[in-house]
Amino acid sequence: CATTTPRAGLLQAVNVLRRRTGGGWHGDMVDGIGFVQAMRTQGCEPRGRRALLVGAGGAGSAIAQALAEAGVAELAVHDADATRRDALLHRLAGQGPGRVAAARGADPAGFDIAVNATPAGMQAGDPLPIDPTRLDPGTFVGCAITAPAVTPLIAAARAAGCATLTGVEMFACVRDRMMEFLLEEGA
Fold first, then answer.
1. Per-residue pLDDT tens for 124-150?
2. CA 63: distance to chain centroid?
3. Nearest alpha carbon to residue 105 among 132, 76, 126
4. DSSP string for 88-133
5. pTM of the prediction?
């Protein structure tokens, strides 16, 4: 990219590009804003809530940034790769009004929102990224995986009485944000 949006610059990643009128490519990363929009569509407003995010890769980083920007009171990030997690925490320092910190693991107890942004759940037999027995029925559980549409984590969260967001529902909003970006003038 010759240029990026401030969000993509912060995340150091893009997932949509458009050719600029004067030449060069302009990029954005819309996974996070799509995820937060989908949460709101499902009735979950992140502002003022405590969130646990498991996975600090591309989609996870974008979701973390969007949750911070949406005003979560606390964002705890867990990733098996502590270096990747810490790099994300460093980039998010000062983003949003809430506290952003390393999680002490993937235990969702005490969180209002729990998000899986790891590939765990894509393959049969994958371990669950979050222990569903530790979910409170009031916890909103989201997953960025699109196939299978209902991951074992989402199925377990639903069985525990939690409201959920699937990766397919997330991607519908991401797709809309991508189209808006591609149709924008300028930049």
1. 999 999 999 999 999 999 999 999 999
2. 2
3. 76
4. HHHHHTT-SSSEEEE-SSS--TT-SEEEE-SSTTSSTTPPPSS-GG
5. 0.95
